[in-house]
Amino acid sequence: MKVTIVGAGNVGATCADVISYRGIASEVVLLDIKEGFAEGKAMDISQCATTTGFNTRVVGSTNDYTKTAGSDVVVITSGIPRKPGMTREELIGINAGIVKGVAENVLKHSPDAIIVVVSNPMDTMTYLTLKATGLPKNRIIGMGGALDSSRFKYYLSKALNKPSNDVDGMVIGGHGDTTMIPLTRLASYCGTPVSTYLSQEEMDKVAADTMVGGATLTGLLGTSAWYAPGASVAYLVDSILNDQRKMIPCSVLLEGEYGQNDICLGVPCIIGKNGIESIVDVKLNDAEKALFAKSADAVRAMNGDLKSVLV
Ligand SMILES: NC(=O)c1ccc[n+]([C@@H]2O[C@H](COP(=O)([O-])OP(=O)(O)OC[C@H]3O[C@@H](n4cnc5c(N)ncnc54)[C@H](O)[C@@H]3O)[C@@H](O)[C@H]2O)c1
Predict the structure, then answer these.
(1) Who lines ligand 1 at CB under 6 A?
(2) What is the pLDDT averaged over residues 195-202?
(3) What are the protein's GO molecular function terms (predicted)?
(4) What is the three-class DSSP state of 113?
(5) What pTM, to 2 d.p., does this model score?
(6) How many CB atoms sit inside 10 A of residue 233's CB?
């Protein structure tokens, strides 16, 4: 089983590291446009093999897509961060050009691959990849909900003062500070509702902390985070390659589900060997439905900035 990761930066390299360390794939190709960068990262990760005990072959490539041939899954993390003075539209234009070009290149060599989109703004980049490639919706998956949900569970565990792995919860909607929807009403601790233990005020704080979880880390690190994002991508890739059929919130094309059409947005999906195996219809209450519609409006407005790239 072969995975290509385009963009050997912080998130891409961490993802390659986790996939190798956990033996999720037999081969990982890291590709980057920066001369020698992916080769260096691949060599560094490979040199962990004997001390951490893995057998995954990790290969680096400077923009040579022939090395990616026959990949089962391709992860796209390539892109640039927003620079001072750059408008959102300019950022979208640049990253859209990168993501579109990368998707076209990888498909030349891996026509059957499932594509996982990570580059931001992720929901818009997922929509772009879908439109630009014309692939069926099950093969284009946006990763954001897995990360946001892990942050939600982290903040829940802190508020409950209980281990993260005893806590369950899910974040749906857009992958952005103001568009994501932590489903506090459905969150649980060992099968019991968290509302048993936390006040409404405490639950609201957990939701608010989750929504700015990425920004909090950017403030601390000076750049966006990579350990949890990389691990979240690896978790998703594992469910695809090993047909685990895990339920993971992912950005996927909606065709009537959750009352939306022609938009990629985070909803719970069953993830297996065909990518998106199905979308799970979780019954939202009226307040959650209103938040989902508002989130869709914001992402749809951003998708409007793709017009020049999609012509
Ligand atoms: N969806 C999520 O949950 C999530 C989480 C974290 C980060 N992100 C996003 O993921 C992306 C990567 O983040 P990062 O921290 O790894 O950034 P980074 O700057 O460390 O890495 C990006 C890499 O992409 C490479 N690149 C740029 N253009 C390329 C091209 N045309 N072909 C190949 N490689 C190219 C760069 O050389 C760089 O090494 C960003 O857009 C970031 O906002 C998304």
Answers:
(1) 6-12, 31-34, 37, 77-79, 98, 102, 118-120, 122, 143-144, 147, 175, 224, 226, 229
(2) 98
(3) L-lactate dehydrogenase (NAD+) activity; L-malate dehydrogenase (NAD+) activity
(4) coil
(5) 0.97
(6) 27
Same-domain status, 57 and 108: yes
Asked if 154 and 111 sit in the same domain, the reply is no
CA of 103 to the centre of ligand 1 (A): 14
| Ligand 1: nearest atom to the Cα of 144 | 3
Indicate if 125 and 149 belong to the same structural domain: no
Contact present, 250 and 130 (Cβ < 8 Å): no
**End of a domain among 116, 144, 172?**
144
Q: What tens digit of pLDDT does each residue of 59-95 get?
A: 999 999 999 999 999 999 999 877 777 776 778 989 9
Cα 94 to middle of ligand 1, angstroms: 12
Q: How far is CA 96 from CA 139, 240, 290, 304, in A?
A: 18, 25, 29, 12
Taking residue 90's Cβ as centre, other Cβ atoms within 10 Å add up to 13
